[in-house]
Amino acid sequence: MNSLDWVVLVGYFGVMIAIGVWSHKRVDNVSDFFTAGGKMPWWLSGISHHMSGYSAVMFTGYAGIAYQYGVTSFVTWSLPIAIGIGIGAKLFAPRLNRLRSKLHVASPLEYLKNRYNIPTQQALAWSGLLLKIVDVGAKWAAIATLLSVFTGITLTQGILITGVITAIYCTIGGLWADALTELGQFIIQLFAGLAMLIAVMHKLDGFSTLWTVWDKLPSGHSHPTAGPYTVTFLLAFLFIKTFEYNGGMWNQAQRYMATDSARSATRSARLSSILWLVWPLVLFFPMWCAPLLVQAKKPDASDSYALMTEGLLPHGLLGLVIVGFFSHTMAMCSSDANAISAVFTRDIAPVLSKSARSWSERSGLIAARSSTLLFLGLSMAIATQVNSPTFKDIITVVIKWVAGLMGPIAIPFMLGMLRRFRKSGPTAALVSWAAGLVGFYIVNYTFTGSERDIALQWQVSVPLAISLVLYVLIGFIKPEDTPERDALILEINSGDGDGGAAAAAVPGARAGTGETVVTATDTRD
């Protein structure tokens, strides 16, 4: 990097902070901080939803997969995510929006205390919080590693720079700052990605590279599945990502909750699905061409994109692409921080402290910002331990951890909104959650070594499958539907204009509180 690249990088950080300061004026209470007061335009929500699903892993880990296996990087990663979000556009997005618009909750998990009970809510909240601290810590380490390669600063310095700047804008401006910075980051990445695509085509055969390069690439580079990324892995990944990217890890759920209506949430999901289908092709094509342009130094080829960037782009554009690396990771980390803060402030703190149950708007907002800082601080502290043997192990399996452990946390949360699963109550939720965690441990840490290794697709999908089967099965064996739970589910499933009808169908229901006294008569799927 030279002075021009540094100007681009410092300018980017300055704009992020400025957006956070501007967003501060739009945050008056906890609802504004966590769900943008339900005023976020559907198109901004969709772009934010899309951007919050990326990290620097795209330019390291998946760049390595693209270098080694070619098209399979798209077919077994972004394509199933696009399909999964498309499925959730009607199934989950509108229901998540109604959690805010009808039940008036500010945290995705807040409705669980009425849908199940407080122990279930706490089990899901604490397990998800601990998982996310490690997950985000690994992402800080990944982006700091890239920063170290390009600038020469130490890993700890890179973690502090990116973490502190993210903490400033997302703590000051809440979800508004997250979404607006993600919009800016999307625009930056648009130019950076196109610059890289044009540079690669210019280096090879010009525009015709799009169709002439395939005969020059290694054998099998155009195959949709290759190596460990089999058809079975693809189906397992689609299964997992349908839950994860439709709100199973909470931060994406907030984007749907932030729109003004269930219809807007559906439109937001469709936009995100289209972006996941189209935009990764622009990012991946240079990665597929990388074997013709650079020789990766690392065994997993995770350095291939960085090497190609340094070799092909002039200064200034190099800085823009580096900013693109930051944009994805900071988008994901800030959205995770806001989601975790919502869960801690709205779900965990009221159980731990009586005073938290009666916080004023000002006190609640202070707690929200404080918990955001606490989460970011803990994740940054873990990231600084990247050179320890323990963390080296964690960073190699963190993707597997998120995919494997997300299911037991997401199943009770997401299926609990659907009428079809109204009979599954606290017992089904807690047993499926606990059994999924045990299943994850068994398939990942019992059957290991020599001939007993289990394929990756089973390591990540078995815990979710166990949770799903038990959640449904126990609901049939031990149904725990009650009038109050039925009424709550009816409220979540009724249309935007049906709030009054839902309340009428459930005499005594108090719309927006989740508190009801008699059964709902409509239990259609």
From TrEMBL:
Keywords: Cell membrane, Ion transport, Membrane, Sodium, Sodium transport, Transmembrane, Transmembrane helix, Transport. The chain crosses the membrane at residues 6-22, 42-65, 71-93, 123-143, 155-176, 183-202, 222-240, 273-293, 305-326, 364-382, 394-415, 427-446, 458-477. Residues 516-525 have a biased composition (Polar residues). One of its GO terms (biological process) is sodium ion transport. Pfam families: SSF. It is a multi-pass membrane protein. GO terms for cellular component: plasma membrane. Residues 501-514 have a biased composition (Low complexity). Residues 496-525 are annotated as: Disordered. GO terms for molecular function: symporter activity. It is found in: Cell membrane. Belongs to the sodium:solute symporter (SSF) (TC 2.A.21) family. This is Na+:solute symporter. It comes from Streptomyces tsukubensis.
